[in-house]
């Protein structure tokens, strides 16, 4: 049947919308009929509305995302890890991702542990540090078990300074270390004199200067407001933090000038932060952690509150089952590499920084940060498509984090295990890449999907 006869049959010009099987659209297009193709497939699993115990999942998820959005994380101070993190002790090393033993740790996480033990004075060199780590005398635990988060290897050792972020709505606290910058840094598994020298300067100069300044600011620094502004200035809050770092520096500089009597020290602190576009990352992570924790413990909620990697395993937690990790092997990152390195050098996915995606920004807000494509590979159009796809697996849109290019639409918020199961769409992440061997450090940055099996296991747990 020709286009004219088809239109005569229906008595009006056609504008066809084809849902599902693409071959139908192709057949009409071949006859000159304009067709809008809508890719659709039936859900992979039936929609789950209630748990076996009768909990209303929709209501539970609505409460979970409401708590997340109500949260207002404020930077109120700093302290030394063993002094301010509840339950910390002198033989405890925190790491990123789900629980793991020394024997199963990947190269960069081992490198960071060894470097931290030397930095703490618990070992004379890296070899002695490795022996101590393997001896059973050091306790290892996820940062997430101590209301903390750490990028890449995520190491927090007893003497390290940490930011203290309080959720003013719910009163809970979250913690994160200061960001070292890129390249040969501890969080990427590097160690050596240059790494220790930087860490000691951060402890002895950067930390006390910032602590005094931050604690002099009445009401603290509203991190939710800074993240919201940064999303309007080209950041996504995970791998691009240039605007966030600039906004933080703008907020804290007057307090530094007023409280630091040593002008040279103040200048050094300013220069360090100004020269490290990733400085705000640790603050955005702590803010995300502070916003997500109040959603934990809501019976029946299938919203993620944790998504983290340790370079060996990828783990998630749901709001309705806050004590249970669902774990799968860490994925391989597709990315851009620094000169002299390639995919053969790369460690699998690592770090707690996916707390940003879990809280509704980071890789889920890539549409707000087209320039991120130059850092992780890809194009601005792909960044836009990444955000649009993530709406399909999220429960709602964020009230406070919006994307200008999408007419200020709220970012995708509330990764719903049910929606991942129904659609087969896995969370998109962007991340740095560490060398697989300890002691080397950063080798690139890129993108990947979360593994499917941990989401499938979590979905089955809801149905149990």
Structure description:
- With 464 residues, the protein is α+β, with helices and mostly antiparallel strands.
- The chain has 16 helices and 17 strands.
- The chain has helices at residues 3-10, 22-30, 57-70, 81-84, 107-119, 126-134, 193-215, 223-231, 242-259, 263-274, 279-292, 355-358, 373-376, 380-390, 417-423, 452-463, and strands spanning 16-19, 35-38, 73-80, 92-95, 139-142, 161-167, 173-177, 221-222, 304-310, 313-318, 321-329, 334-337, 350-351, 394-403, 409-415, 428-434, 442-449.
- The chain has a four-stranded antiparallel sheet with strand order 7-6-3-8. Strands 11-10-9-13 form a four-stranded antiparallel sheet.
- A hairpin with a 5-residue loop joins strand 14 (394-403) and strand 15 (409-415).
- Helix 5 (107-119) crosses helix 6 (126-134) and helix 15 crosses helix 16 (452-463).
- The mean pLDDT is 93.
- Estimated structural class: alpha+beta
How many whole angstroms does the radius of gyration measure? 24 Å
What's the number of domains? 3
Number of helices: 16
Q: Percent of residues in helical segments?
A: 25-40%
Kindly estimate the percentage of residues that lie in beta strands according to DSSP: 15-25%
Mean pLDDT: 93
What is the CATH topology classification name of the largest domain? Enterococcus faecalis V583 fold
Task: Based on Cα principal axes, name the global outline.
Answer: globular
CATH homologous superfamily title of the largest domain: Enterococcus faecalis V583 domain
Largest sheet: 4 strands, antiparallel
> Low-confidence stretches at least 5 residues in length (pLDDT < 50)?
none
């Amino acid at each position: 049947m020709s286009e004219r006869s088809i239109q005569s049959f229906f008595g009006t010009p056609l504008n066809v919308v084809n849902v599902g099987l693409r071959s139908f659209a192709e057949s009409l297009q071949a006859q000159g009929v304009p067709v809008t193709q809508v890719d659709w497939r039936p859900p992979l699993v039936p929609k789950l509305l209630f748990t076996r115990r009768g909990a209303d999942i929709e209501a539970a998820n609505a409460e979970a995302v409401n708590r997340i959005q109500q949260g207002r994380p404020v930077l109120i101070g700093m302290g030394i890890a063993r002094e301010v993190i509840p339950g910390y002790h002198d033989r405890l090393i925190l790491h990123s991702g789900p629980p793991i033993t020394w024997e199963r740790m990947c190269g960069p996480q081992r490198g960071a542990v060894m470097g931290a033990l030397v930095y703490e004075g618990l070992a004379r060199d890296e070899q002695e540090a490795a022996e101590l780590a393997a001896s059973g005398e050091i306790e290892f635990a996820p940062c997430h078990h101590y209301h903390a988060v750490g990028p890449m290897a995520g190491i927090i050792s007893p003497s390290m300074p940490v930011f203290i972020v309080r959720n003013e709505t719910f009163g809970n606290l979250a913690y994160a270390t200061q960001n070292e910058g890129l390249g040969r840094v501890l969080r990427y598994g590097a160690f050596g004199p240059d790494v220790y020298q930087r860490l000691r300067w951060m402890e002895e100069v950067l930390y006390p200067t910032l602590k005094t300044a931050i604690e002099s600011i009445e009401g603290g620094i509203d991190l939710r407001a800074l993240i919201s502004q940064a999303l309007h200035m080209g950041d996504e809050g995970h791998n691009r933090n240039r605007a966030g770092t600039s906004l933080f520096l703008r907020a804290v500089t007057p307090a530094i000038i007023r409280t630091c009597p040593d002008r040279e020290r103040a200048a050094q602190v300013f220069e360090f932060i100004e020269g490290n576009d990733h400085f705000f990352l640790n603050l955005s992570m702590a803010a995300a952690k502070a916003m997500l924790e109040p959603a934990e413990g809501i019976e029946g909620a299938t919203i993620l509150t944790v998504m983290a990697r340790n370079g060996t395993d990828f783990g998630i937690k749901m709001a309705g089952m806050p004590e249970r990790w669902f774990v799968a092997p860490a994925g391989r990152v597709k990315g851009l590499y620094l000169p002299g390195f390639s995919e053969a050098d790369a460690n699998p996915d690592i770090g707690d920084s996916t707390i940003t995606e879990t809280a509704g920004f980071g890789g889920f807000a890539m549409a707000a940060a087209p320039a991120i494509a130059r850092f992780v590979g890809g194009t601005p159009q792909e960044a836009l498509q990444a955000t649009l796809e993530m709406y399909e697996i999220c429960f709602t849109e964020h009230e406070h984090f919006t994307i200008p290019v999408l007419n200020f639409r709220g970012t995708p918020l509330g990764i719903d295990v049910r929606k991942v199961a129904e659609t087969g769409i896995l969370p998109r992440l962007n991340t740095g890449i560490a060398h697989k061997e300890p002691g080397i450090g950063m080798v690139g940055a890129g993108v990947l999907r979360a593994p499917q099996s941990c989401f499938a296991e979590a979905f089955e747990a809801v149905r149990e």
